[in-house]
């Protein structure tokens, strides 16, 4: 089916006469990522809340749900942190089944009012701090957002009889996987090795506990590294691409031998859609890719994509100090999800070309100034403290130099979660 016919088909599902005009303005490359409906649709779903829906993955998911399922009402909550942008959702502005709320999921009153007023029955929870580098410098913020934010959401979901709570996590909770070790399946031991993955694992423990203790109907997903258009340029693919567009360098951590598996964002949201409609309550689903590449080889491939002669590669490659800890690789077994009928559709060659094309057109205008994201180690900025007034505000210290009690409480919550629910880290 050609794109024009596809857009007409999407429009025909809506009774609102303005929808055709909205869809006709969506770029072809974006329509390609919408995909097709899952049939049959889960009959219990009507009003869906997507947390972090203005972010990279969240916005792809929101656009898909809004355009494919006119019977769903999609509500987005996002605090519009540095890596999110309303530009990600601009193409669906005016759609009758979409609404946006700027807000923080750590506000219990706000979350409760949304669930009640919008009669939410389903939650996709994607809101999180996700950049490993930043977690080495400001790890407390990761605990607050990823653990406490999830806890607030779970409490509200429990009180409002949510029918599906889909918690989007990461393969990093499994920790490093040696090439001689088998791929991690959903019941593998969790062994997070950095503050980011530790907070995601702690959040998972809370999610599982609400399923076991209160019967909250949860599903957890864990995916490989995701790449594609609209990703804030702090992750390696988008960071290297934006740097090369500016004739800058690709900064290689360590010797560049660390490898990752990469999955195109459109394939990920296809999986999230399938899991919403066909996934089993209480299950965990790995979402994986077979394409694995080292950081150094990734940089070289991107240089080739930019038609930079191999003899000039050395000019664009700079080896820098490694992270405080850098997992060698991750590897997951996604057999369970593939048995539901999912498999990736976008190959690396096509996906990375499409991604590069998007950044060439948009990287300098989508988020504003991105220069701070393109440095070798963003977390180093936290080591130099700002002037005293900003310093107190930044790390929550009062005039006596005593740490604010809120931070203490958050840390205690995190330790208790890990202690009380620690047995889930060691399930066979």
UniProtKB/TrEMBL annotation:
Residues that span the membrane, as ranges: 408-426
GO process annotations (BP): nucleotide-sugar metabolic process
Keyword field contains Lipid biosynthesis: no
Keyword Cell membrane among record annotations: no
Needed cofactors: NAD(+)
Stored InterPro entries: dTDP_Gluc_deHydtase, NAD(P)-bd_dom, NAD(P)-bd_dom_sf
Alphabetical keyword list: Lyase, Membrane, NAD, Transmembrane, Transmembrane helix
A molecular-function term among this protein's GO annotations: dTDP-glucose 4,6-dehydratase activity
Domain NAD(P)-binding: 49-355
Annotated Pfam families: GDP_Man_Dehyd (PF16363)
PANTHER family: DTDP-D-GLUCOSE 4,6-DEHYDRATASE-RELATED (PTHR43000)
Protein name, as recorded: NAD(P)-binding domain-containing protein
Organism field: Glomus cerebriforme
């Amino acid at each position: 089916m050609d794109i024009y016919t596809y857009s007409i088909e999407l429009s025909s599902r809506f009774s609102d006469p303005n929808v055709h005009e909205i869809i006709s303005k969506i770029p072809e490359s974006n329509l390609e990522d919408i995909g097709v409906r899952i049939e049959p649709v889960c009959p219990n779903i009507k009003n869906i809340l997507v947390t972090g829906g203005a972010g990279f993955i969240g916005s792809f998911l929101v656009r898909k749900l809004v355009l494919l399922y006119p019977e769903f009402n999609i509500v987005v909550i996002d605090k519009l942190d540095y890596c999110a942008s309303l530009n990600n959702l601009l193409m669906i502005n005016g759609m009758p089944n979409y609404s946006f709320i700027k807000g923080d999921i750590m506000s219990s009153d706000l979350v409760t009012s949304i669930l009640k007023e919008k009669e939410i029955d389903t939650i996709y929870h994607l809101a999180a701090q996700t950049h490993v580098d930043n977690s080495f410098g400001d790890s407390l913020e990761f605990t607050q957002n990823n653990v406490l934010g999830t806890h607030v959401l779970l409490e509200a979901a429990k009180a409002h009889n949510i029918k599906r709570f889909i918690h989007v996590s990461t393969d990093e909770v499994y920790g490093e996987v040696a090439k001689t070790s088998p791929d991690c399946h959903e019941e593998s031991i969790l062994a997070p090795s950095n503050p980011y993955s530790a907070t995601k694992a702690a959040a998972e423990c809370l999610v599982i506990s609400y399923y076991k203790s209160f019967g909250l109907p949860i599903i957890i997903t864990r995916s490989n590294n995701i790449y594609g258009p609209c990703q804030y340029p702090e992750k390696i693919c988008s960071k290297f691409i934006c740097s090369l567009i500016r004739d800058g360098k690709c900064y290689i951590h360590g010797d560049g031998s660390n490898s990752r598996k990469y999955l195109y964002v459109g394939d990920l949201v296809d999986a999230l859609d399938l899991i919403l409609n066909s996934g089993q309550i209480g299950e965990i689903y790995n979402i994986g890719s077979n394409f694995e590449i080292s950081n150094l080889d990734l940089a070289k491939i991107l240089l080739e994509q930019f038609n930079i002669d191999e003899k000039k590669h050395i000019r664009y490659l700079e080896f820098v100090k490694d992270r405080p800890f850098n997992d060698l690789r991750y590897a997951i077994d996604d057999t369970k999800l593939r048995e539901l009928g999912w498999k990736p559709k976008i190959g690396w060659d096509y996906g990375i070309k499409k991604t590069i094309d998007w950044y060439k057109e948009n990287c300098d205008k989508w988020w504003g100034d991105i220069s701070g994201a393109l440095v070798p180690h963003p977390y180093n900025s936290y080591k130099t403290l700002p002037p005293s007034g900003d310093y107190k505000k930044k790390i929550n210290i009062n005039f006596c130099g005593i740490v604010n009690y809120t931070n203490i409480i958050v840390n205690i919550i995190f330790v208790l979660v890990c202690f009380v629910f620690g047995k889930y880290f060691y399930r066979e």
